[in-house]
Design goal:
- With 527 residues, the protein is of the alpha+beta class.
- 19% of the residues lie in helices and 26% in strands.
- The strands form 6 sheets. It has a 5-stranded antiparallel beta sheet, with no helix packed on it.
- The longest helix is centred in the first third of the chain and has 23 residues.
């Protein structure tokens, strides 16, 4: 028994020695036992690399370590930029050695989000939405209006007054509202003094030389539609072609028939007349402004040699601008407003004037202020009169919602019969014009949102409508009415404005085909 027990004890001692680790002779404390699982975890942590993108680095005083870590940061940023640029590559497991699945998934989410933001093109959209700088205003300078100072209001309590049932308002002359009185110009000639120049400044000599040039002869040959479209497509507008000529809204315009240079005239709703020569140095950027009328200038045209500018206005006067005499001569005066006029002769000595009260006057410019004949039409008001370019005894009248053609040789004082009636208009007609060279067409603009082209090659009762084009005419109360006008160089095409946005000018063929649309977001901003 003793031998057996001794053998067992020896075996147990050997087992205990094998399990117990050897102690270092220099250590006093006993060694702590570590389980196999803890040792394995420590080994895994040593083998794993620290995550490059998620490491936290506190501030280190050692400059050498700081320089090394800055280099590491730069390398990491470059790596991140490469991963963002390569949107098509996918982050597969093991793409970066030592990164966990969570970190790889996070980088993949970053890449997808960056690719989505790039697909939205936010930078291009933000640049497009930035407000563009407004073009510089050339021509007449805007007048600064001072704000009117009203009297200070005081309470009755601060004035130590009791409540009053009937309070009477004492209005000072500055606060009293008086009806706006428009003073008419005095009858007779008016001095030709530019209002945007200093007093006693004469008209420039180069303007006088241009004014007296021989008019340009119009070419009667027309282009084919393809060549005409190519010419229209070459026309452009830039900042140098935009200038403020008059102070108010433009109601009429005309071009001087000069062959050497461009000279334009425009009239506004306040009776101002502006002349503009693009490359001139006089006035305000080549603009001279006059004030021959007291109300809107409704129509104007240049006469042949000797050249004069004829203007008619709502103030009832028709004037002739003569630069040599430096005056605005009065050609005709009416008790009613004048809306339109046209020349009855080739030498432009006789005028046909349409009055707002429904009368048509034939005036000879050589007899100042007197008319040869006055005729009352069937309807009023008269919005447009236009003379046939070949047979000048015929003229078309747009009166209310009717368009009629009359023969001047058979006119009576009242109740004159029309030669032709252009039927089909359901609302008021704003304009009616013969085609420029032959007069075989009449172009009308009606407020029923239609532009109509009539065949007037034969002056009889049957004047069929060739084409009716739908066009929005609702300009509102504060804008001038739209009017379709023939192109003087292309007698089968006409031009009209548009209320559509962006603002545009449209060119049509008489068949109703839209040939071209002029538009510019920066410089063509009005109707």
């Amino acid at each position: 028994m003793d031998a057996d027990t001794s053998e067992i004890s020896l075996k147990t001692i050997q087992l205990l020695q094998e399990r117990t680790p050897s102690q270092n002779p220099g250590m006093d404390e006993p060694v702590r036992r570590t389980s196999r699982r803890i040792r394995e975890r420590k080994q895994e942590k040593k083998q794993m690399l620290s995550p490059k993108c998620l490491t936290f680095r506190p501030k280190v005083k050692n400059t050498r370590k700081r320089v090394k870590r800055k280099k590491n940061d730069i390398e990491e940023e470059e790596n991140v930029q490469e991963t963002q640029a390569d949107n098509n590559n996918e982050f597969l497991p093991g793409y970066r050695e030592g990164l966990s699945e969570y970190e790889l998934e996070r980088l993949e989410n970053i890449r997808q989000n960056q690719a989505f933001l790039n697909s939205l093109k936010l930078q291009q959209i933000s640049e497009a939405l930035r407000p563009k700088p407004k073009p510089t205003l050339r021509g007449l300078k805007r007048e600064k209006t001072e704000t009117e100072m009203l009297p200070v209001r005081k309470s009755l309590r601060l004035q130590q007054k009791g409540p009053q049932t009937d309070v009477t308002l004492e209005m000072t002359p500055s606060t009293a509202i008086e009806p706006e009185k428009i003073a008419k110009k005095a009858p007779g000639p008016i001095p030709l003094d530019p209002i945007n120049l200093e007093e006693y400044v004469r008209v420039p000599e180069d303007l006088l030389n241009l004014w007296n040039e021989v008019p340009l002869k119009q070419d009667t040959e027309t282009l084919d539609l393809k060549s005409y479209q190519e010419v229209l497509q070459k026309l452009t507008i830039d900042e140098g072609c935009v200038v403020k000529v008059v102070k108010g809204r433009v109601c009429s315009a005309a071009f001087h028939p000069s062959a050497s240079s461009l000279l334009m005239a425009a009239g506004d709703k306040f009776g101002h007349l502006g002349l503009w020569k693009p490359d001139a140095i006089w006035g305000d950027d080549g603009v001279l402004c006059f004030e021959p009328h007291s109300r809107a200038i409704t129509s104007m045209a240049f006469s042949s040699h000797p050249c004069n500018l004829i203007t008619v206005s709502y103030d009832g006067s028709a004037r002739s601008m003569d630069l040599e005499k430096a005056v605005f001569d009065e050609v005709y005066r009416s008790t009613s407003g004048l809306k339109s006029f046209d020349f009855l002769s080739n030498d432009c000595s006789t005028l046909l004037l349409g009055e707002w009260n429904g009368e048509v006057a034939v005036v000879d410019r050589r007899t100042s202020g007197k008319y040869e004949s006055l005729h009352t039409m069937a309807e009023k008001p008269i919005r447009c009169v236009h003379v046939h370019p070949v047979q000048q005894h015929y003229f078309v009248v747009a009166e209310s919602s009717f368009v009629n053609i009359y023969d001047l040789r058979h006119l009576k004082r009242r109740n004159s019969l029309a030669v032709c009636e252009l039927k089909g208009h359901r609302r008021s007609v704003s304009s009616a014009f013969f085609s420029p060279h032959t007069g075989n067409r009449v172009l009308t603009t009606c407020m029923d949102n239609n532009i109509r082209v009539f065949n007037t090659s034969q002056m009889d009762c049957s004047t069929p409508v060739i084409k009716s084009i739908t066009h929005n005419m609702h300009t509102g109360r504060w804008l001038s009415k739209l009017s379709a006008v023939w192109d003087p160089k292309q007698q089968d095409c006409f031009v009209i404005g548009s209320v559509n946005r962006p603002r545009q000018i449209q060119v049509y063929h008489e068949s109703g085909r839209l040939l071209h649309t002029f538009g510019n977001m920066d410089h063509l901003t009005t109707v």
